[in-house]
Amino acid sequence: MTAAERTLDAILKISDADSGMFLFVVNRPDRKVADDAKFSGFFTRQLLDAIAGTERQEVERDCGGKYLEGEICGLDFDPITCAQDEPENGYVYRTEKSTARRQIITMAWAGRDEVVAAYRMLKQGGSWKLDGVACRPAPQFNMSLQD
After folding, report:
1. Most C-beta atoms within 10 A of its C-beta, which of 76, 87, 91, 107?
2. Residue 50, Cα to own-chain centre: how many angstroms?
């Protein structure tokens, strides 16, 4: 497994285990702001802005721009894992394109052939960060399926 794949694996596992990461990436007002620091180092600002922008659009469309008690307002899936659930047997990765500072990695659930998402990882300041997510078949956040 490459260093970028290991970083992506850590991000997906944290997202599965800690709902705070979802609240952070969609920029929910009811998140624990004190927890932002433990998640922010995994993502580029461009990706976070893209996900939060889509969340705002969904909240506006579904609930008039405000989160409503008992209603699904906003994204109804995790934009990092591209799913509502988590896999029983983990994730499988394949690096599709690679340079010293950029990797495109696809992900499938272990035991299944179908690719769930493609990710763009960028090396910044000596560490890998998630910069783009393209869920299959849609939506995409700061990335297109042609990347």
Report:
1. 107
2. 11
Whether 114 maps to a domain, the answer reads yes
Instruction: Work out whether the CA dihedral 117, 17, 45, 92 comes out positive or negative.
Output: negative
Q: List 122's β-bridge partners, or say none.
A: 102, 129
Pair type for strands 127-135 and 91-98: unpaired
Closest CA to 74 of 15, 32, 25: 25
pLDDT at 39: 96
Is residue 147 included in any domain, yes or no? no
- Per-residue pLDDT at 144: 73
pLDDT score for 145: 61
CA distances from 30 to 8, 34, 126 (A): 26, 11, 32
Range of the domain at 132: 3-141
Q: How many residues does the chain have?
A: 147
Confidence (pLDDT) at 137: 82
Residue numbers in the chain where pLDDT is lower than 50 = none
